Amino acid sequence: MMKFVFLILALAPLLLPLIFQIDKQIFKDGNLKAAFGASLVATILFSAITVVLYLLGLVSYETQNTLSISFKNIPMEQYLLHFSLNFTGIALYQYLNLRFPKNDLQKYSLAFSNLLLGLCVAFLFFGYPKWYTMLTFATLLLVLLLIEYVGKLRFMYRAYRAFVFMLVPLLIVYGILSWNGTILAAANGVSGLHIVKVPVETLFLFLSALLVSIYMFEFFKSKRAA
Q: What are 115-147's pLDDT values in tens digits?
């Protein structure tokens, strides 16, 4: 039974988009294709980061808790989890936009992004040489700079709102996987800050993945509308 826990947890978040679709038709007008493509792009990028973390010995997997199907020594379930969380994040973002369309707080999003940039710099400075921490916050720093200061699409308040709600399924899934030892982060590679046994690096790396997913979702939608 333990061999199927990772797979079940990897697929479980996909129940939420189904519920959102039934309630608000979030994937009409071609949004499903855009969401799938955006999730796939983010999954490929952040799966590559996961491979790097594995090669550096910063993350490991208990193979007795997986189905023994892997690519680059990363269990298939981890790739599925990346995709399901990215896709669910987009679905939640779209659902909240339809349910709560007001965007008054967007004007504060740049200030909040700048605070996050400062946090990234602080972790990069004080986190050296903990390489899981360094890689996580270097990635978030780059993503924030590209979206806020290079990209033209503006959606960050709504993206941050989606991230706050996504913390619940994220902590449940990774909390269980950390508690049962399926995913292990090297103690000498992380800052030592945890929430329900989940390293904070996992949360901020997911924030980067979610921002990339939503940016690509909005990009694909803008191209379709053009």
A: 999 999 999 999 989 999 999 999 999 999 999
Which pair of structure tokens corresponds to residue 17?
């988009």
Q: Residue 53: is its pLDDT beyond 90?
A: yes
**Six token digits for residue 74:** 């990363």
Overall domain count for the chain = 1
The answer to whether the beta carbons of residues 59 and 53 sit under 8 Å apart is: yes
- The amino acid that residue 166 corresponds to is M
Bond from prior residue into 169 cis (ω within 30 degrees of 0) = no
Closest listed residue to residue 89, CA positions, set 39, 140, 156: 39
Angle between helices 76-99 and 15-24 (to 10 degrees): 20
State which residues form the domain around 22.
2-225
**CA–CA separation, 214 vs 39, rounded Å?**
8
What is the helix (H) or strand (E) element at residue 24, kind and residue range?
helix 15-24
